[in-house]
Each structure stands twice: as C-alpha cells, then as structure tokens.
Amino acid sequence: MKQLSQIFADIAIPMAPDKIRSAAIDPKTLAPKINNRTLKQLARSAGLVSIAHTAYHLMALEAARSMPLVLLPRVQWLDAPLDGLGGGPEGERLANAVLTVCAENASSDSQIVLTTPQALPVSPQGLHATKHNSNRPLIPHARPESDNL
Description:
Strand content: 5-15%
Number of helices: 3
Number of strands: 5
C-alpha cells in the first residue's frame, strides 16, 4: 500500500501542485485521498475529483509496469479527464498539467487513451491527438499496409 500511495502521490501532485499538498491511497478502502479528504468530501471541487480519478488510473498503469506481482492491464482509457477543471487561464493551466503528466506516464510498453469533448489547449510531447466530429465519428485503428490479407 505504501508503494501504491507513493505512485499515486507522484502522479497526482504534479497535476495541481498549488492545490494538492498530499495524496495517498487509503489502505482500508483502496480509495484515493487528496489533502487528507475522500473523493466524497472533495465533491465540491470537481477539478480535484477529476484529477484524483485520472491519477488513480495512471497509478494502476504504473503499478502494472513497476510491481512484478501486480496483474493489471497496461492500457488505460480515460474518459473526460479534463471535465471540471474550469475555463480560462486557470482551467487551461490545469488541463496542460494533466495532459503533460499523462504523456509522461505513457511508455513503449503501455498505452493511454484520452477521450474528451473539450478542445485541447496544447499537445504535450508524446501525446498524439485525433479530432473527431460528425463528419469523422470513428476512432482510427491500426491496419495492415494491404487490405488483401
């Protein structure tokens, strides 16, 4: 549990270092805690709840890579990780921090898929964006060079 808490803290705090002083995993419930508060207690701050969820999933991905006895998938699909972060310069700053941490946690032996209705403020190095709308509603998939296979 100490190792999971450390991984969680290392991921969550850089997403909002001015708002998050401490981050840990509760050993009894395995639930994330930020600033010694549960997600239910953080409900008024949707941005922190969103950051906690994103960091929790990235923690599971990192645990799958770094802890040999942990059997977790090395793929994470994060739906709407930028919801609740707000608008304007503050929301853009938080979104940039979340995207940067996500890009840093992706590696050659894992994959992170982010889906969000918001326009991305930036595209950090290592993050590949594909825009979809009613004219392009499908997610592209890898295909062989020839369809004759």
